[in-house]
TrEMBL record:
PROSITE patterns: ADH_SHORT
Name of this protein: Short-chain dehydrogenase/reductase SDR
The entry's keywords: Oxidoreductase
Pfam families the UniProt entry points to: adh_short
Keyword Oxidoreductase: yes
Family: Belongs to the short-chain dehydrogenases/reductases (SDR) family.
InterPro entries on file: NAD(P)-bd_dom_sf, Sc_DH/Rdtase_CS, SDR_fam
């Protein structure tokens, strides 16, 4: 007879996050910043990584005031340019053990077609979105395996599951993140280290402004007539994956805005 988990209480063995250590890339804004805020609220010490150090310092001050028991450790770094040697030294620099890695830093640049796009933009996107994830995973997964404890969460995208007009490079990188995540799960299946991805649709952050290189009208047009998700919606999904009981490994969480049925299919009620 099947055990009734409701009566044994096992159903409620959520994975506690209190006192654990995390590293979040792309923590200076948008989804990464919202994830750091939720982690700090759960009592997690967080190493926050991005290029804009002033934003990181502001976030440290805010969160350490709000949550005095939590340590926020800023690390200024370009995830697309850090050498292998520097990358492998990062775990020693962080003043606490990192057993939650959130590979979030990422971007899209432009919506040009494959016959007109900029190769230098493509290289920046590939190096950030793919090599950043590969390098941070390499730097932290070995310690996680040794300790037989850890969780890697990669922020992918609906663009990792679909291809759309003008999205060739971005979609290619997010498909790569999806494949890397699934392979990482295979590689680490003989340990207790868990690997998950979170794949959102439209979330209004600075992402689209970066993609359109500061074109305010193009950014506004993309979000016209519907309610996009906000960064906190994605942060909640990350916390959901992290807090499942150890017996469970969330593979991927795909979400869309309510008015969205695919990456570029959006009902605009205007
Ligand atoms: N917004 C969306 O609709 C959406 C949907 C699906 C998936 N995503 C994914 O979600 C992730 C976060 O995007 P977002 O929407 O939060 O965008 P965002 O608001 O533009 O934030 C991007 C973050 O990544 C950091 N970053 C970018 N390049 C970096 C580099 N080379 N080295 C270190 N940090 C870097 C930025 O910090 P600095 O500039 O300070 O370095 C910033 O903190 C990305 O992987 C994106 O692909 C976004």
């Amino acid at each position: 007879m099947a055990t009734n988990l409701r009566t044994t209480g096992e159903r409620h063995q959520f994975c506690s996050l209190q006192g654990r250590g995390a590293l979040v890339t792309g923590a200076s804004g948008g989804i990464g910043l919202a994830i750091v805020e939720r982690l700090a609220e759960c009592g997690v010490n967080v190493c926050i990584v991005a290029r804009r150090v002033e934003k990181l310092n502001e976030l440290k001050e805010k969160l350490e005031t709000e949550y005095p028991d939590v340590t926020i450790f800023p690390l200024q770094l370009d995830v697309s340019k850090t050498s292998e040697e520097e990358m492998l030294k990062i775990p020693e620099k962080v003043p606490f053990q990192v057993d939650i890695l959130v590979n979030n830093a990422g971007l899209a640049l432009g919506t040009e077609a494959v016959d007109t796009n900029s190769i230098s933009d493509a290289m920046t996107v590939v190096n950030t979105n793919i090599m950043g994830v590969v390098a941070f995973t390499r730097a932290f997964a070995s310690g996680m395996r040794e300790r037989d404890r850890g969780h890697i969460v990669n922020i992918s995208s609906i663009a990792g599951h679909e291809a759309y007009i003008g999205g060739s490079i971005y979609c290619a990188t997010k498909h790569a993140v999806d494949a890397f995540t699934r392979s990482a799960r295979h590689d680490l299946r003989n340990s207790k280290v868990r690997v998950s991805s979170v794949s959102p649709g439209a979330v209004r952050t600075d992402f689209t402004m970066t993609r359109f290189k500061g074109d305010v009208d193009a950014e506004a047009a993309l979000y016209r007539g519907f309610d996009p998700m906000i960064a906190e919606d994605v942060a909640d999904q990350v916390i959901y994956a992290l807090s499942r009981p150890m017996r469970t490994q969330v593979c991927d969480i795909i979400s869309l805005a309510n008015a969205q049925s695919a990456a570029r299919d959006i009902h605009r009620g205007d």
